[in-house]
Each structure stands twice: as structure tokens, then as C-alpha cells.
Amino acid sequence: MKPRANIILALDVDTLTKARYFVNRLYSKVKIFKVGPHLFTAFGPRIVDIIHKKRAGVFLDLKFHDIPNTVSNAVRQAVKLKVKMLTLHISGGEEMLKSAVKAASEEARKLKVKRPLLVGVTVLTSQKSSPQAILKLAKLGLNCGLDGVVCSVREAVFLRKNIKNKFLIITPGIRADNTVCDDQKRTATASEAIQAGSDFLVVGRPILRAKNPLKAAKKLFK
Ligand code: C5P
């Protein structure tokens, strides 16, 4: 099946050498690489440059959550780095979210670059929650101007059913089949995620741990 969704590789590695290795091996198949707090704290914008040199996009997954002024300033810096998308915690509240959206739009206009997609995190999978609580947060985020939310495949079905407006869904926990889960509680295959209404599929370990990462990526998204 040809995926209509975009593949995002979670670049969950701890050295620039490894990051470079995966970007170089996979940029022909993967057009977006997710950079989290681990890699970004260690190497900062250098990792962004490595990805951009291969003409791939950066998903800056730092899950901003702070007072509105601090988050807006962080978002402005992310726009300067020309990242394709970034995450914020919706639980940071309306004022924080609206000022982040405003800051992203203003900075992008000023620099004449594309505004990054702003993606909201509802409830962390490590925390207890309910579908209704996730729906409430997703609606709040989207009403404040976010472009989409991160959620599991199961939540994607629920959100698509209950939110009629257009928005993006980013789903982690993608596996070739549902028997290999690592520590993920709710995994899904790429086609299940796409059917559930996901636009971006995040994969890490199934590709990072593979003997042949490119082959593994092709197998996951064939
Ligand atoms: O290795 P794996 O494919 O499980 O990687 C999933 C990636 O998605 C990791 O970078 C993880 O931090 C991220 N993620 C997740 N669950 C969420 C949000 C993000 O697994 N709810």
C-alpha cells in the first residue's frame, strides 16, 4: 500500500555520528526527522543543519510548556531554525497557545519563511487520561490556532469522529505488525494509522534498531 501519510523518523540517538548516519541512510525515503530533547540538548541547531543539508524537514519535538512570553520566544527561535513542525503542551493553556501561534506567524512573515506546523500534545501516554479529556484538550488546541495534535491510533479514530474541522494528526507507535511493541502500549501498523485518519506517522526503534534501516523503513511503509 502506498502511504498517503508522511513518515517521520524519531531520531532518538545520542551522538551526532549516529544522527548523521540515519539521516544519510534514510533521506531518500524519510522526508522528516524528529529531534527530541535528548539530541537537541546535546547538539542544538547543529542537528537541524545536518537534516536540512539533506533537504529533509525537522520536527522539533521539545513539547514547549511555560509562561506565554517564554514559549513565544522559544517558538520564534524555532521559526528562525526553519523547522517544519514543533510541539507544545496544550495543557499550557489558551493564552500560551494563542501567543505561540501569533509569535510563529509574525516571525515567519518577518523572515519570509513558512510558518512551522504547530502540533499540540494532549495528555502524555505515561499519564492517566480519558478520551473525553483528550478531546477537550484537542478542541482547545485547535480553537487556539494549532494545526494538529499528537495522538495514538485509537485516539485518532475518536478525534476524527468528534471534531469535524480539518486538522492534522501525528501518531507515534507505528510497527510492522502489532506483536513487537517495545514499551509502547498501543501500537498500530502504518495502514491502520492511515485508516484511522493519521497524516504523519512517527517511527523510531523499528528503523533505528534494524540491521538495514532503509530496508526496514521500506518494509514498514511499502
Ligand atoms: O521507538 P518508537 O517507534 O516507539 O518511537 C516513538 C517516538 O514517538 C519517540 O520519539 C517518542 O518520544 C515519541 N512519542 C511517543 N508517544 C507519544 C508521544 C511521542 O512514543 N505519546
Commentary on this structure:
With 222 residues, the protein is of the alpha/beta class. It has one domain: Aldolase class I (TIM Barrel, Alpha-Beta Barrel). Helices cover 45% and strands 17% of the residues. The chain contains 10 helices and 8 strands. The chain has an 8-stranded parallel barrel, surrounded by 4 helices. The radius of gyration is 17 Å and the shape is globular. The mean pLDDT is 94. The protein binds cytidine-5'-monophosphate. Cytidine-5'-monophosphate binds at residues 10, 12, 34, 36, 125, 150, 172-173, 182, 184, 202-206.
Core attributes:
globular, TIM Barrel, 8 strands, 222 residues, alpha/beta, binds cytidine-5'-monophosphate
SSE topology:
Elements: E1 6-10, H1 16-26, E2 32-35, H2 37-43, H3 45-53, E3 57-64, H4 68-80, E4 85-89, H5 94-111, E5 117-121, H6 131-143, E6 148-150, H7 153-162, E7 168-171, H8 190-195, E8 200-203, H9 205-208, H10 213-220
Parallel strand pairs: 1-2, 1-8, 2-3, 3-4, 4-5, 5-6, 6-7, 7-8
The protein binds cytidine-5'-monophosphate.
Q: Estimate nothing, just give the exact number of structural domains.
A: 1
- Total strands: 8
Could you state the oligomeric state of the chains shown? single chain
Low-confidence stretches: none
CATH class: Alpha Beta
Distance between the termini: 6 Å
Q: What is the radius of gyration?
A: 17 Å
Average pLDDT metric = 94
Distinct bound molecules: cytidine-5'-monophosphate
What's the shape?
Answer: globular
- CATH architecture annotation: Alpha-Beta Barrel
Q: CATH topology, anyone?
A: TIM Barrel
Main sheet attributes: strand count, strand direction, barrel closure: 8 strands, parallel, barrel
* Content of β-strand: 15-25%
Query: CATH superfamily assignment?
Result: Aldolase class I
The secondary structure category is alpha/beta
* Spatial ordering of strands, largest sheet: 1-2-3-4-5-6-7-8
Count of helix runs: 10
Helix and strand element order: EHEHHEHEHEHEHEHEHH
**How much helix, percentage-wise, in residues?**
40-55%
